[in-house]
Every structure is written in structure tokens, then in C-alpha cells.
């Protein structure tokens, strides 16, 4: 990355271990420039000096760059794809005692993992299948993981979750909705970094599944490390069904 961004990225790399040089350049640069504007700072060099002496700003920049934006049933088409193509393939000739394991990498605040849990429950209800399911969800952001684990979401989810699903899988609580134990039962959320350098998204954590049936990684270019985008075919090596979600 040119134009004075490199020293800022080095500082971040040293402080957080995340190499944002591997992420989409435009997005990273835009987010850094937004922080400059926020503090009314005129040059990247001046901002770098601020970062050296202001750990709160360094954390704020790190948080901004991770971009925890997500929502329930984001991109409906991919959920239809799951339902019509992936779930039937998973269930085909599957022994009754073969548990299904799904890994949602970069789950942010959990909406995606719970959406998959709900979709799978609905698929089981429709087809009569009953497999044990574990959905491992992970994210590098500890605050996002904490929120994901709480299972509590704001009122705005009603924009993406149908009234029937709200009624069936959530309880109304003050200020929003709480996912019910039934829907959350299969979801296990871990703080974990998916190493952008690794083509198969190895996270190096023993608790994550060695083999998953589905690896769910939404590869929106803005959020994904470049090396992951460059190796999409390798994703399918992780499990019997690898789906790449755009
Ligand atoms: C924009 S959110 C996407 C959330 C969800 N997958 C979706 O598409 O709705 C991107 C998430 O990826 C996480 N992330 C970015 N780099 C990561 C890495 N190297 N390892 C694990 N998580 C990462 C961020 O913390 C953020 O929560």
C-alpha cells in the first residue's frame, strides 16, 4: 500500500497481529482516511504519530477496519442455495449417527450462524431428517463474538426475519429479540482468527473441526483478505461440501 499508509499498517500489525495489507486496499484506505477526518488531522504522518501515543485510537481503528456489518438471512439467494442444493446433498446417504458440522468463519455478531441454524431446523422439519448438528462460528473480533454469544438482537432484525420466524425462534425482550435456546442450541461461537495467509483458512485452534461438512465464508471482497479470494477453489478441500458465498 502506498502513500503513507504502510507505516500505519505496520503499527497495527505490531499491535494487533492483523496484517491489513492483505485486505482490500480501497476499503482499508477509506477507513483510515475517515479516522483522519474524524480527528481533523491533515496528514497520514500526523495520524501515524497519534496512533503511536494513543492506544484507544489504535483500538478504534482496528475495530473500524474489521467491519462487523452483518444481518440475518443476508443474501437470500445463498440461503435458497443451501436449502435446495447443499442440505439435500449433506443428508444423502448419510448414516443417522453422522453429525453435521458447519464452520462459519468471520461470523461477526452471529446473525449468519443463527440463520444457518434456523434454516437447517426448517429443513429437518420439512424432510423428517434428524441429525446432530454443530455449527462452529468464529470471528477475530472479541466484542463481536461476545455479542454473538449473547444471542440478543435489536428490533431492526424484524426487517430481515419474517414474523413467523420471529415468533418461532425468538423471544421478545426489552429493546429487541433474544434467540431461543432451541435455535441457538447447535451454535458454538469462538474467538478465532482465520489466517489470511492460509489458503484453507486454517485457524490453528484445536477446538475447531478438522473437517467440516460446510465451510461458510462470505467472500465479499471488501471484507476478505486478498489471499482468500485468490484461492477460492481450495475452500472446498476443507469439507465434503464447500460453498463460497458471494
Ligand atoms: C463484514 S463482517 C461479515 C459477517 C458475516 N460473515 C456476513 O457476511 O454477514 C466481516 C467479519 O470478518 C471478521 N474478520 C475479518 N478478518 C478476519 C480474520 N482474519 N479472521 C477472522 N475473522 C475476521 C471481522 O471481524 C468481521 O466481523
Average per-residue pLDDT, rounded, comes to 81
- The backbone outline, from C-alpha atoms, is elongated
> What name is given to the CATH topology of the largest domain?
Rossmann fold
**N-to-C CA distance:** 25 Å
Q: Structural class of the helices, strands and pairings?
A: alpha/beta
Oligomer: single chain
Helical content, roughly?
A: 40-55%
Pattern of helices and strands: HHHHHEHEHEHEEHEEHE
Name given to the CATH homologous superfamily of the largest domain: Vaccinia Virus protein VP39
Strand order of the largest sheet: 6-2-1-7-8
In CATH terms, what is the architecture of the largest domain? 3-Layer(aba) Sandwich
Our count of domains comes out at 2
Largest beta-sheet details? 5 strands, parallel
Report on this structure.
With 246 residues, the protein is an alpha/beta fold. It folds into two domains: 5-66; 76-245, Rossmann fold (3-Layer(aba) Sandwich). 43% of the residues lie in helices and 16% in strands. It has ten helices and eight strands. It has helices at 5-16, 25-38, 44-53, 55-66, 76-91, 111-127, 142-150, 163-169, 181-184, 226-230; strands at residues 100-105, 133-139, 152-154, 170-173, 176-179, 187-191, 214-218, 241-245. The strands form two sheets. A five-stranded parallel β-sheet has the order 6-2-1-7-8, covered by helices on one side. Strands 3-5-4 form a three-stranded antiparallel β-sheet. Strand 7 (214-218), helix 10 (226-230) and strand 8 (241-245) form a beta-alpha-beta unit. Helix 1 packs parallel to helix 3 and helix 3 (44-53) packs across helix 4. Bound molecules: S-adenosylmethionine. Residues 66-70, 74, 106-108, 112, 139-141, 144, 193-194, 196, 218, 223, 225 line the site of S-adenosylmethionine (SAM).
